[in-house]
Every structure is written in C-alpha cells, then in structure tokens.
Specification:
GO terms for molecular function: peptidase activity. By secondary structure, this protein is mainly α. The protein has one domain. It has seven helices and three strands; from the N terminus they run H-H-E-E-E-H-H-H-H-H. A hairpin with a 4-residue loop joins strand 2 and strand 3.
Length: about 230
C-alpha cells in the first residue's frame, strides 16, 4: 500500500502542478491589465527602475518559455507575455525581472544554483547508470555512488525553491511600485506566480521522494549482506 501511494505521488504531483499553472495562466491571460502595457513594457519599466538598463527584453519561442539568462543579460519572454496586455503576462515578466535583480545584487542562492548547474547536469545523467548496475548486480557500492550523484541533482532542485520564491516576492514588490498594476490587481498577479511556483515545489518533492526510496533500498541491501 505504501508503494502504491509513493508511485501515485510521483505521477500525480507533477501532473497536478502542470495543470494548476496552465489553468491559472490561461484564466488570467484573458484578464487585461488596467495600465494596458505589454509584458515587454512591464519588464522594461521595472528593469529601468532598478538601474538595469543594460538588460535587454527579448522575445523567446514556445509556450511559457519565459526565463532570465544571466550569461547574455536578457529577460526572455514567450510571445503571449511579450506582446500581451494581461495580468498573467505582467506577473510573469516581473518574475523574470526578479531574477535579473537577484543577479545584480548577488543573491546567494542564485549564485549557488548557477554553480550547481554543470555538476547537476552531469551527475543526473550518470546517476541512473550506477543505480541500475547496483540494483541488478546487487552491488551496494555502485548503488551508493549512483545515490551520491543523484543527490547533487536533488540539491539543485531544492536550491531552486528559494530562488524562485524570492524572485516572485521581488516581482510583487516591483510590479506595484513601478505602477505596472494597481493594488487591487495584486491578488490576481500573485495567483499566477504561486501557481508557477508549484511546478518547482512538485519537482523538488518528487526528486526528494525518489532519493529517499533509493537510500532505503541501499540500507535494505546492506542489511541483507550482513
């Protein structure tokens, strides 16, 4: 019964998070922002208000492909958010600018996450090789190595949480202070950002659950060897 619940969580958590963010975004992408400005204009205004005139706002491709690139110093907004005049577009644009502000002030968790990127990419890809060898060959040393490599990827997921929540908090502060939205629109903008944050929470939860399962498997194999 425990394993049924476990695997149900692994499957349902990400699906629920994706449904939540898409449905919330769809709802508020139809709600026009009172100021009538586009997401690109909102991002530009907040950037300029924070002395980030050198950061460019560019259009990216794909649905909800919005992100901040610290290497190129660009806020990349998906077409709907770049050109749209919605509450959702303004909120997402402000969130990505929040990352640009983090970059400017040297936010510790953002720096840590950037440092983890190459390690997490390599370890996440390699971890399952050692894990599968360890499981099928009943080799505890190989399984442990796979778990250690996977832990680096899990750490990346966990560190991502404060980065994203902090960016959203900065976004909410800036989006009102810069006059992008009115005070009475703040609740709707926060709903968009909270829904987006759930995707990161779900990803981190799934990663932690899987790591715990493998650790329990490792301890079980060790006990059977004794």
């Amino acid at each position: 019964m425990i394993w049924i619940v476990y695997f149900a969580l692994l499957i349902l958590l990400p699906l629920w998070a994706q449904f939540k963010v898409k449905s919330t975004y769809k709802k508020f992408s139809k709600v026009p922002v009172s100021t009538g400005i586009t997401g690109a204009e909102a991002a530009r205004r907040i950037l300029d208000d924070n002395g980030l005139q050198h950061v460019k706002v560019v259009e990216s491709h794909g649905f909800l492909s919005d992100h901040y690139n610290p290497m190129t110093k660009t806020v990349n907004l998906s077409p709907n958010n770049f050109h749209g005049h919605s509450i959702a577009g303004a909120a997402v644009a402000a969130h990505e600018v929040g990352h640009a502000i983090q970059d400017k002030v040297g936010y510790a968790f953002l720096r840590f996450r950037h440092a983890l990127v190459p390690v997490a990419n390599i370890s996440s890809n390699m971890s399952w090789i050692f894990i599968m060898i360890g499981i099928f060959a009943q080799a505890t040393n190989m399984l442990l190595l796979g778990i250690v490599l996977m832990a680096a990827g899990v750490l990346f997921q966990v560190v991502t949480l404060p980065v994203e929540f902090n960016a959203s908090n900065r976004a909410m502060d800036q989006i009102v202070a810069s006059g992008v939205i009115r005070n009475d629109e703040e609740r709707e903008a926060r709903k968009v950002l909270n829904a987006a944050a759930m995707t990161y929470v779900a990803a981190a939860a799934v990663a932690v659950l899987e790591l715990v399962r493998l650790v329990l498997m490792y301890t079980g194999m060790q006990q059977s060897e004794d």
